Amino acid sequence: MIYLQLTYNLSLLIALSVLTGFIGQREKITEIQKSIIFGIIFGLVAIVGMLYPVNFAPGLIFDGRSVVISLCALFFGPVAVAISASIAIFLRLSQGGVGVLPGILVILESAVFGLIFHYFIFKKKNVVFVHHLLLMGIFVHVSMVLLMFTLPDNIAWKVVQTIGLPVILIYPVATILIGRIISDNLEKAEFLLKLKASKENYRVLVENSQDIIYTLDPQGIFTFVSPAWTILLGHPVDQIVGKSYQNLIHPEDISVCNEFFKNMFNSTPEKNVINYRVRHTDGSWRWHSTKAVTLRDNAGSITGFLGIARDITEQMQAENDLNERIVQFHNLANSSSALIWTAGTDKLCYYFNDTWLKFTGRTTEQEKGNGWAEGVHPDDFDRCLKTYVTAFDKREKFEMEYRLRNAKGEYRWLLDIGTPNYDAKGEFTGYIGHCFDIDDRITAGVEQKKKNEELRQMNSLMVDREIKMTELKEEINGLLNELGKEPKY
Asked: Residue 97: its pLDDT value, please?
């Protein structure tokens, strides 16, 4: 009978323990407020058990307060258990009887063991396992049985014999059951709070994102679009949801978008990023870049698509402007008689105009990088490379002369003038060079130097001859003078 009575008392406490889940889900309550509320709740739960106890004798009752108090301390700490224990102690004092002292001591020792497990188990790991609950239940209720020896000698041993075994067998199990309910409720409450916070963060992210966030169903119908759609494209959100993406795409981009959408159904899509044009409410077309992923249910079936679209109209316009400038530069460079080249920040050449290619008889692919250097005369290579690298590192203009092999296999002298190139922001982007064929000028200069040398040598010979003739005349005049004759010269 004692087993049934104890089980009934504890089952009532198990039912009441579900209240912990409701309080845990309130995110606007501070930790100290939760501790106070839980302390009051557990105190009231303990009171319910104490009001419907197992009566062993007048003033000697047994109930589930030890389970409730120890679990309150375990999960909610000192503030909560101080409140719940105080409530239970107050009621036990008011009930009176021979069992007041052991009853109060049981409340206190339950709180102490609960706090020990709170600080050494729950606070460190933030989780309580079944074996922790069982161990705490055994400690609390073995101590509870031992505290029965504080009763008068004539009844202490009888009480221990009667309730000792049922308490040690039933109460730890009840501790596990109620503890798991509380633990599950707390975990569920924490999960719901995190889920709610996650949803709120997602909502804030979506509503404040400068990019359009959208979802499509498997038929390509919009099921959601973020407010950024209205900001970027002018359409009210409610006019977009429920419509097909095809209604808003530029006719020239429909086939590309359809292929992209169809490709998303593959397990490994070839690509998940695409550029296309979308109609604005003012009639203009805005370039967008979108990245999409599939949404799947638990069975793995595709339920829709989640995408993020970014307005890249300015970027596309800038690229078009750049491409137009490049075309203009190439047209201008190809009409020049100079050999024009460009190099990037990596010191490698990536463009040669038609004049250069016609001169060398090679293709752009052959000349790119350092390929052009294959045509430099071996005697000029080291000097040419040193001049180029030094000027590049210092970002200075340079001029150098070197010989480059032409399409006929002949080496022609070139004057190469390299100028640093900067973009609109003042960032260094590389070099642009102009080469001029100066072979004829250098050859003419060499010929002139040769003729000048021949004249100098001839003049030197003539001067030497005149000197020798003068010396000979002087000798002849000297001999004639010695012979007493008139000088001849």
From this structure: 87
